[in-house]
Amino acid sequence: MADHMTHESFGQRCGRVLRHWRSSKADAQRAFPDSTLAAVAQAITAGEQTHRGEVRFIVEKALPTDEVWDGVTNRQRALALFADYGVWDTEDNCGVLIYVNLAEHKVDIVADRGIDRKIDAATWQAVCRTMTEGFRQNNYHDATLAAIEQVNTLLRTHFPANGARPNELPDSPIML
Q1: 10-residue block means of pLDDT along the chain (176 residues)?
Q2: Count of CB atoms within 10 A of residue 161's CB?
Q3: How many CA atoms are closer than 13 Å to the CA of 139, on its beta-carbon side?
Q4: Going by C-beta distance under 8 Å and a sequence separation of 6 or more, which residues neighbour residue 78?
Q5: Roughly what angle, to the nearest 10 degrees, separates helices 140-158 and 34-48?
Q6: Helices (H), the chain
Q7: Cα angle value 26/128/63 (rounded, 5°)
Q8: pTM
């Protein structure tokens, strides 16, 4: 069995483990205080009134140590959370996960197959850059809300609302 981490040295792996280990709950709360989390929930709720998409927002202060050591990438973690939180399980296959890994300073967006057919990876990368550029300036609140608005605009364009529908996924952010 091939080790998918062969390109990463022992020192790099240890450095990554330490970075995740040092990331604290307090760091996450400073970046995403209750007021920001409430604003994110409101932005998701408002956006979902205008399109058929279901948006989930998950912030993780750090990966579990064993996953870091095993070389789990940000994308792999986002895909696992996409499955774990049922973002894939919407009626129109219109779920979108915005995943923030604070220890890595990375953002990943996973879109369900219904959306993935219409919105390309480069477009999602641009949304991720909105967040990461804002995060570099310690502007988590505005950068996150700007990215959610970009997601809502994309979903409104490609999956406009077509009448009343149930809210299939909770709109409140998840802090791990």
Answers
A1: 56 75 84 97 97 96 88 95 94 93 95 92 97 96 98 96 87 96
A2: 14
A3: 11
A4: 97, 99, 108, 109, 110
A5: 10
A6: 10-22, 25-31, 34-48, 65-69, 74-84, 113-116, 121-136, 140-158
A7: 40
A8: 0.90
